[in-house]
Design brief:
Strand content: 25-35%
Mean pLDDT: 91
Family: Belongs to the glycosyl hydrolase 10 (cellulase F) family.
Low-confidence stretches: 1-27
Pfam family, one: Glyco_hydro_10
Oligomer: single chain
Keywords: Carbohydrate metabolism, Hydrolase, Polysaccharide degradation, Signal
Organism: Gossypium barbadense (Sea Island cotton)
Helix content: 10-25%
Structural class: alpha/beta
Radius of gyration: 26 Å
Number of domains: 3
CATH topology of the largest domain: TIM Barrel
Number of strands: 23
Shape: globular
Protein name: GH10 domain-containing protein
Strand order of the largest sheet: 15-16-17-18-19-20-22
């Protein structure tokens, strides 16, 4: 790209927002093993080939019988073949952990990307991959597997010790058979992992710029002086922070906040327990004031939240309502808050923490959430409607909110609200970030093609959390 600069008093001043420098260690990046971002959310007739050729897994496609594989617990295993595809079938299961296993050797401080294709003999059941080592158990990921087709489980973990380990699978329903195929476990050093991040930054966030100084006739200027300034501190991509009404009376904080962020959401001011403390008496004064402040500074606002499924965070008067009264109150709430701010927000968290809690479903039935989104779409169809949830990418041990469970709920909502713009909201409350699992979860959720937002990012402090290298990895 060429940029023309007119001569003025023999001094050329150019404002440049982005200057790209070559990445350090470019030679290492070129040779580093690439990460495979492939993820499938479709249930397929035949599993795809293992990622990374299976990595360190022995006999990943079962082409050598059961070599490298053995029964785990009291299960029985056998190789089967269907339509030319060979796989291992686990049956006669008496405990959730009865399955198939392979012994491995892990390296400390190494990130492992794991995947496998799973099928169950009947119905649909959650199946998880677990890695047992001398230091404990690592949950590698989970999938809601179906019968008659294959589902991809993609996950990962970081090994905290060097030594032997064992991969196995678990499912609470012991009456089903678990079929598994196309395994992969690929190790990455921390340097290789960092190189993947740098490559993506270079690809997505950087561009090469050619600067040429010319006069009014288009002739190149020799010995021109060019000054480069950063035009603004704000990034060119959405990044934000929550605010509450205290910012309205704190001028230093206003200056600090508005110079850094492009997006915000309100901590409590738009939530139901804040806007309708008593039935029929709505007060949007604080939310209106915060929205006005954001508009003045060209900061976009996410609507958070319309409903919260946690029973602890409801208006006090809601608990005594009958199901019919509650249904009317919810309808009024959705219409009231969303119609008030239609056209002024960039997104809505329609239901908050729906995978962990079920206050409204317990009272209004299993279709309550899809019905909420259908009404929300009818009120404001112009912006994405998010399902906001925690532990979907933070904690592989939380079976309630795995990417597979999130997608299951999303499909339920889309089944009743087919034309709605949907978005994936991930609260992102981290302890020690499990980077490999986080990456795999984002791959899986990204296969939907929907926008993904990290909506409430925070990381707990810990003995190793303050190291600059830890933050760079994150």
């Amino acid at each position: 790209m060429e940029i023309s600069v007119l001569q003025k008093n023999n001094l050329i001043t150019m404002l440049l927002i982005l200057v790209c420098a070559d990445l350090l260690f470019s030679g290492f990046e070129a040779n580093a093993l690439p990460y495979d971002y492939t993820a499938s959310i479709e249930c397929l007739e035949t599993p795809l080939k293992p990622l990374h050729g299976g990595g360190i897994i022995l006999n990943p496609e079962l082409n050598m019988g059961l070599k490298g594989w053995q029964a785990f617990g009291d299960a029985k295993i056998e190789q089967r073949e269907l339509a030319g595809n060979k796989f291992v079938a686990v049956h006669a299961r008496n405990r959730p952990t009865d399955s198939i296993s392979q012994k491995l050797y892990l390296q400390q401080e190494t990130l492992y990307s794991f995947s496998a294709w799973i099928q169950v003999s009947e119905g649909n059941e959650a199946v998880a991959a677990v890695f047992k080592s001398g230091t404990g158990f690592k949950h590698g990921g989970a999938v809601v597997a179906e019968s008659k087709c294959w589902s991809m489980l993609k996950g990962g973990f970081t090994s905290d010790a060097t030594g032997p380990a064992e991969l196995y699978f678990e499912s609470k329903n012991t009456s089903i058979e678990i079929w598994v195929d196309s395994f992969s476990l690929q190790p990455f050093t921390t340097e290789e992992w960092a190189s993947h991040q740098d490559q993506n930054i270079k690809k997505v966030r950087k561009a090469k710029v050619r600067i040429q100084a010319i006069d009014k006739l288009g002739n190149p200027l020799s010995n021109a002086t060019i000054t480069i300034q950063q035009q603004q501190n704000k990034p060119g991509f959405p990044i934000g922070c929550a605010i509450n009404k205290n910012i309205l009376t704190n001028t230093p904080y206003q200056k600090w906040f508005t110079s850094r962020f492009t997006v915000t959401t309100f901590e409590d001011e738009m939530k139901w327990y804040s806007t309708e403390v008593s039935p029929g008496h709505e007060d949007y004064t604080s939310a209106d004031a915060l929205l006005s402040f954001a508009k003045q500074h060209n900061i976009a606002v996410r609507g958070h939240n319309v409903l919260w499924d946690d029973p602890k965070y409801q208006p006090g008067w809601l608990y005594s309502l009958s199901p019919a009264e509650l249904s009317n109150a919810v309808h009024k709430r959705i219409v009231s808050v969303m119609s008030r701010y239609t056209g002024q927000l960039i997104a809505w968290d329609v239901v908050n923490e729906n995978l962990h809690f079920s206050f409204f479903e317990n009272k209004l039935g299993d279709q309550a959430t899809p019905n909420f989104y259908r009404l929300a779409h009818a009120v404001d169809w112009s912006v994405p409607l998010f399902l906001n949830e925690y532990n979907t990418i933070e904690d592989s041990r939380d079976g309630a909110a795995t990417p597979a469970k999130y997608l299951q709920k999303l499909r339920q909502i889309q089944g009743l609200t087919r034309n709605a713009k949907m978005g994936i909201g991930l609260e992102s409350h981290f302890g020690t970030p499990n980077l490999a699992y986080m990456r795999a979860s984002l791959d899986t959720l990204g296969a939907t093609g929907l926008p993904i937002w990290l909506t409430e990012l925070d990381v707990l402090s810990g003995p190793n959390q303050d190291r600059p290298n830890t933050w760079n990895k994150f």
